[in-house]
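Worked example 3 (structure in, sequence out).
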């Protein structure tokens, strides 16, 4: 086998990567790896949405205590990859036959799951569930469609909630089991994903995590090293996040592209909220590429790859469509796909509150901005502009979304004054 790697410095994709940072550093900046899977069938993907029930939350109840008192829910979709010899079996998968897929020669494959708390906390329990054999009870809404297994699990009031103050994590193990007549069941593939039980909502001009309003104290972060340029070591990424946490920040926006995988792992463990931004910025062609059909597939591809890669991280509370890329059909496509695939997080996009053409003054009264963004997220509004939105514009138009600036304190030279004045208005 010959593995060839070609690094292209400038291409048509460069028009989607016009971010304000040090450009032109061609090369491979992050780890690249190959992996092998079992030949007949393997676990291609596991997506687990873990939430907590906030409906019975009593006034004054703390979500960040270390008592596993909360009712949890898991919605799991597992995708089974297979070779040409492994085929779908069953009379009619609409009626949820237990056999998911079959190998020529009689072998069948099934999935089973195990959930355990990663921390040794008093009261923590482990759970096991098999969507193929459980009928009623905790396992619900079982669907077996070709190579997809989808179901939900209602957990009793014994799970810990995840938050930035108490980032309690669970490990979800998924096993793919081969079953053959005359042989004991054989585990052929195992995947483990980290999950955290938390619920994200936007309502009444508030961002709620686990039913409680959250004030975002965030940082926009670029990958940049004084010695490595765009090649940043995982230890440097973690040091950045630990520094943010030490100084009471609680959120990070991956400006303006998805971060390295190590960023999300660290944020899960440390307790930082993340707005995960797609690698789409057309700054120099703001009004053009968003309307260019030939770029639509590339924009959607960057969106889906971001979401699917980072889908299981509890730290990710929102998806960003990109930065300064215009307001066109491509952004509507992005928002629609994300909301259809993952409704457990908000979608945001700063360009949703601009007029159709150009980057002039924010248009907070644009009646279709909510189609792209669940958050009103301007960049660099004045203090008077914020006060006007809160006191006059939002009440007048019945705005139900919160305003959370995506950028507002750009420290360049002798700058970053008036922070106390900004925070007086924010509070």
């Amino acid at each position: 086998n010959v593995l060839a790697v070609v690094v292209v410095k400038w291409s048509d994709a460069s028009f989607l990567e016009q971010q304000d940072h040090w450009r032109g550093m061609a090369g491979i900046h992050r780890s690249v790896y190959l992996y092998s899977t079992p030949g007949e069938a393997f676990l291609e993907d596991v997506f687990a949405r873990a939430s907590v029930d906030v409906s019975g939350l009593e006034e004054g109840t703390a979500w960040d205590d270390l008592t596993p008192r909360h009712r949890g829910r898991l919605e799991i979709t597992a995708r089974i990859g297979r070779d040409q010899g492994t085929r779908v079996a069953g009379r009619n998968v609409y009626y949820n036959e237990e056999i998911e897929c079959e190998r020529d020669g009689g072998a069948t494959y099934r999935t089973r799951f195990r959930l355990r708390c990663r921390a040794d906390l008093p009261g923590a329990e482990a759970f096991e569930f098999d969507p193929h054999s459980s009928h009623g009870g905790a396992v619900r809404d079982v669907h077996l469609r070709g190579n997809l297994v989808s179901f939900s699990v209602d957990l009793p009031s014994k799970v810990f909630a995840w938050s930035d103050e108490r980032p309690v994590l669970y490990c979800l193990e998924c096993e793919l089991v081969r079953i053959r007549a005359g042989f004991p069941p054989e585990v052929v593939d195992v995947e483990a994903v980290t999950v955290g039980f938390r619920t994200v909502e936007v309502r009444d001009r508030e961002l709620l995590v686990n039913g409680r309003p959250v004030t975002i104290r965030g940082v926009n972060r670029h990958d940049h090293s004084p010695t490595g340029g765009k090649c940043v070591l995982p230890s440097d990424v973690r040091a950045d996040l630990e520094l943010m946490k030490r100084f009471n920040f609680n959120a990070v926006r991956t400006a303006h592209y998805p971060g390295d995988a190590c960023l999300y792992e660290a944020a899960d463990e440390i307790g930082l909220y993340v707005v995960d931004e797609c690698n789409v910025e057309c700054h120099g062609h703001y009004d053009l590429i968003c309307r260019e059909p030939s770029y639509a597939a590339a924009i959607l591809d960057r969106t889906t790859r971001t979401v699917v890669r980072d889908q299981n991280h509890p730290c990710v509370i929102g998806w960003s469509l990109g930065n300064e890329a215009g307001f066109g059909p491509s952004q509507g496509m992005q928002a629609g796909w994300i909301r259809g695939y993952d409704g457990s997080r908000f979608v945001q996009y700063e360009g949703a509150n601009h007029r159709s053409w150009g980057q002039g003054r924010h248009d907070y009264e644009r009646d279709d901005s909510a189609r792209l963004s669940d958050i009103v997220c301007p960049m660099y509004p004045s203090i008077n502009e914020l006060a006007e939105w809160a006191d006059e514009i939002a009440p007048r138009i019945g705005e139900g979304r919160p305003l959370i600036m995506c950028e507002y304190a750009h420290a360049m030279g002798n700058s970053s004054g008036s922070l106390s004045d900004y925070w007086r208005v924010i509070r």
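Notes: The chain is about 15% helix and 25% strand. Residues 89-99 have pLDDT under 50 and may be disordered.
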